[in-house]
Amino acid sequence: MTSSKYVRSFKRYNLVFSVIFLLLVSGYAGTVSFLEGEHPALLELTVLFVSCMLLLGGVRNWTLRRQITSFMDSVDEMVDRAIHGREKMTHFDETSLSSLEHKLWRYIEINKANEQNLETEKNTIKELISDISHQTKTPLSSIMMYSQLLAETPELSGNTRLLLNEIESQSEKLEWLITSLVKLSRLEAGMITLQSTASPVIETITRAVSHIYTRAESKGIGIQIKCDPLTKARHDHKWTSEALFNLLENAVKYTEAGGTIRISAESNEMFTRIDVSDTGIGIQKEELRHIFKRFYRGCSARDYEGIGIGLYLTQKIISIQGGFITAASEVDKGTKLSIFLPKSKCVNTDRFQTQPG
User: Fold this and answer.
1) pLDDT averaged over every residue in the chain
2) Which CATH superfamily is domain 197-354 in?
3) What is the pTM of this model?
């Protein structure tokens, strides 16, 4: 409870006390006058008694208010000193205020120690991620380079060439996995700062589509975009484009040849909504609440290549920018994933919502 709430509560209690006090005094004076008659001396004594009681109540009320105000000022000063590390105010007096100050200092000291430990762990994680990224890229690049050189050898047999192609394919998947995990780790460790600005979303959508268009065209999947060029959202162009690419990649992967992917965007007072809908295999209702978990793959998705990190990464990118993502789907009819991006600066959220189609 804040100090203002304490003051309001005190005023309510004081009002109730004053009303009860007046009723009791008035009732007492009236009863005495009624029982003893209208003797002048009795009336004077009654008036004097009532006046003294009212004066005493007023003094008591004023004193209590002063004590509470003084206590709240002391607490405010004590908290301010503790936060800024200045000299203690009570110097270990045997009072409740001294006990409160001591506990407050202990809490702040523990909190600062925890912050230092977290910062140390964060720096350790940063170094570890950088080492992993550096140490894995070199041998992986060598494997891919040697595979390409071997592929240029004309005397390779058919089976050898097939195996070599498989090595290249798996190396590319491993490179993508390592890159995705490093990106995710950097986001979670706070090593990457997203630069969110209010800008049109059509450019972000177009960039994401350009990276998936060839793959969609090879499967005969049409991509339709419905977006007003003036529709804006506060977002990081590069990272939001990557988040949309992950959604589009899944849409192409889980949509049969000849299907359709629709992308639309519209704004309201608080958010800009970007929908990515497909005509793919869909997601079972009971699995919708799990699809944004790290490495989760639904039953129907296990026949397709993937590791279950794309949607988790997308959700993380969107939530860091203060947005959220929802999912709606129906088996064999398709899936619609909706990204909500804020139109102005807002507090970051880390949530997602799912709902049946």
Assistant:
1) 80
2) Histidine kinase-like ATPase, C-terminal domain (3.30.565.10)
3) 0.60
